[in-house]
Amino acid sequence: MKIAILSRDASLYSTKRLKEAGEQRGHEIKVVDHMRCYMNITSHRPSIMYQGQPLENFDAVIPRIGASNTFYGTAVVRQFEMMEVFTANESQAISRSRDKLRCLQILAKEGIGLPVTGFAHSTQDIEGLINIVNGAPLVIKLLEGTQGIGVVLAETEQAATSVIEAFRGLNANILVQEFIAEAKGADLRCFVVNDRVVAAMKRQGAEGEFRSNLHRGGKAQKVKLTPEERSTAVRAAKTMGLKVAGVDLLRSNHGPVVMEVNSSPGLEGIEKATEVDVSGKIIEFIEKKAVKGAMRDRIPY
Ligand code: ADP
Ligand code: MG
User: Fold this and answer.
1) What is the full per-residue pLDDT of the chain (301 aa) written as tens digits?
2) Nearest ligand, CA of residue 140?
């Protein structure tokens, strides 16, 4: 098969590993920087140009779209869809999961376990917002944050009020969330491919840090999931319409709760911690499912 990896940087671990895994299985793999593509959307034959040449005869694309390029990146994925090229994740699903609030709203509707969460922009009723999550300690998040930046633990209601006021001054959308103290600074990254968890790791935040992000000094190790954790992760990915997803769970007193669903989950941490060939699993999924024009997304939100 001829497969394009949409990635800004061919030297990234995830990009290199996907290319390697595809080539090992006899496929022709091309790394395409989606930000350097341009498109012809006026003709009846949609096309994508890259380095002066049309991108033609691809059987599948694997989007690895960074959070800062969602708008243009998903437009390129959509153009491949218009050309009836199979994509590991569809553009709609990528856009949907990038919006944390949209993500939580859809997961909540499906009855998937979530931390109690409030959402606001410029409310004057800070007390009411804090009451939604039953007071402090609570977690406040900037909707646009990634890698743990913009996630704040407020231990007291006073601290919460000042942080919310400060964020309001920034004209930002914020989430206010029940603090899952019993997770003890750890979360579970469940790597889902084609409706199955293929690898899972536990990330433990650095000493004294409630955020488990590896970018914040967290450490990862292989973990065995409970059947409930497994099914929660699979349901969350399915609900978002993602075939390749990193589902992050917290172990709470009321069962696993979903924190976020990532559409371009990194491969380095998970492959190193679990020694599972996750890249190979993604290629295998494409071998099995890549059919011309097979659009699957039926999610109305
Ligand atoms: P980001 O998108 O920046 O990674 P997250 O929502 O994933 O933001 O939060 C970062 C980290 O903070 C999580 O991995 C988790 O360890 C911790 N965390 C986030 N929300 C909560 C919460 N409600 N209770 C306990 N820990 C949390
Ligand atoms: Mg996170």
Assistant:
1) 999 999 999 999 999 999 999 999 999 999 999 999 999 888 788 999 999 999 999 999 999 999 899 999 999 999 999 999 999 999 999 999 998 889 999 999 999 999 999 999 888 899 999 999 999 999 999 887 778 888 999 999 999 999 999 988 888 889 999 999 999 999 999 999 999 999 999 999 999 999 998 888 899 999 999 999 999 999 999 999 999 999 999 999 999 999 999 999 999 999 999 999 999 999 999 999 998 877 778 888 9
2) 1
Report how far ligand 2's centroid is from the alpha carbon of 90 (Å).
Answer: 21
Selected from 3.40.50.20, 2.40.10.10, 3.40.50.970, 3.40.190.10, the CATH number assigned to the domain covering 2-96 reads 3.40.50.20
Q: How far is the CA of 248 from the centre of ligand 1 (A)?
A: 9
Contact 145, 177 (CB under 8 A): no
Crossing angle, helix 227-240 and helix 100-109, to 10 degrees?
Answer: 120
Q: Which H or E run includes 132?
A: helix 126-132
Instruction: Say how many CA atoms lie within 13 Å of 201 toward its Cβ.
Output: 26
Distance 47 CA to ligand 1 centre (A): 40
Instruction: Give the number of whichever ligand sits closest to the CA of residue 100.
Output: 1
CATH number of 182-288, picked from 3.30.470.20, 3.30.1390.20, 1.25.10.10, 3.30.70.1250: 3.30.470.20
